[in-house]
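User: I've been going back and forth on whether these two constructs are worth ordering. Before I decide, could you fold them both?

Assistant: Sure. I'll take them in the order you sent them. The first construct and its structure tokens:
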Amino acid sequence: MIVKIRKWQLSDAADLAAALSNRKIQNNLRDGLPYPYTEQDGKEYISAMLSSDENETFAFAITVDNKVIGSIGAFRQGNIHKQTCELGYYIAEEYWGKGIMTEAVKQICEYVFNKSNIIRIYAEPFAYNTASCRVLEKAGFQYEGTLRSNAVKNGKVVDMKMYSYLKTEA
């Protein structure tokens, strides 16, 4: 099984829609994604990622043996945080628990640190998403603390955890 991240292609829209039309996945992501997630939604997202500034948005498809199974992105922050990126990711449910996401996180961190002036990459998974927290820990991220009552997801106030990975640790 070969895990790689690569630039998006418009032809990936159907695979993206298949992965993201899953409530279990969407329950662990920020709000605003349509459900069901259609191929057209995928094309719009991919077009936006392809037209974004490559020094601000580092967006990739996650592939296993050349099949798109998910998405990973690091997004540069602004103002005093301009050398910091927020990390977001997901993969299709049938690929959970196989070490794929950990490998994808390692690959994007290496890419961002080598291709930009970013010094810190952080992620804020929901505290209840223990699998995502494990991914980050296995990829070398440090747990910095719990952000109490930091979000409202599906009508519930939830905590989030803060993880970071520094260029000096890479």
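The second construct, handled the same way:
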Amino acid sequence: MRLGVNSVLFGGHDLQSAVKQIEFCGYEGIELASIAGMAEHLSDTASDQAIQDIRSMVDQAGLELYCVEAATNILEADNRERTKRVFERAAKLGIPMVTTGSAGESDNEEKMEASLKAVEELSQAAHDVGIQFALKIHYGQSIYNTETALRLMKEVQHPALGLNFDATHVGRVGDDPVQAIGELKDYIIHSHIRDTKIEQLQIAAPEFQTAGRGTVPLEAVVHKMVEINYQGATVLEIIGANDYSLEQVTAIAAESRGYLKRLFEEAKAKAVI
């Protein structure tokens, strides 16, 4: 189990506070948020000194750097250039991958074609700096379910490209998340995890994204990830908490870790029986 937290949960607080609390909660790693307008703990313009400071901060906490989330509309050229700058800074930090969604619109072939081209361009840019591009299957975008994810991996066969799997996205569009893991297992290189009211299209408030408080079949999802021998990191990604106090977001992280740690331990124990 390699369990971490996306710093977007701490979007209303500075990175030093996030790192301190993530370490305190017992996580092994962190995913840096580089999401303009939401949480920008890693800037696309970060200087070499700023990068060195982040590296030192994380190392002193004994955490791994798993990924950078740079969610944006990659169909816009300026945003793709920003993403490439994030790639460069991730590489300098020794972070193995960056994740974004595909942008576009579900069931819109014109937008799908544009998304495929954008993903191919970014996959090559990631490859050029020595990292991977983890494309997040995302509700409402061109790559939003199992079928479109398989199409992506068939049509954009790039060695730097893989999938970021989040059960809350595929589940809300009607796919069985457990079945989806089985069908996509050869391509999943990163994983986001959280809870929500999965029967609703809108992601629930942060307290209901806390692992164990929603209706996502997290136990079955974790067991399936262990079954397929998933070796990547699993990162708690909870959005919408920018107005929450540091105590509140720390409580969300701590409660989620306890719940998820138990699920992974039970799944591993079952796998060896």
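Notes on the second construct follow. The chain has ten helices and nine strands. The two ends are 18 Å apart (CA to CA).
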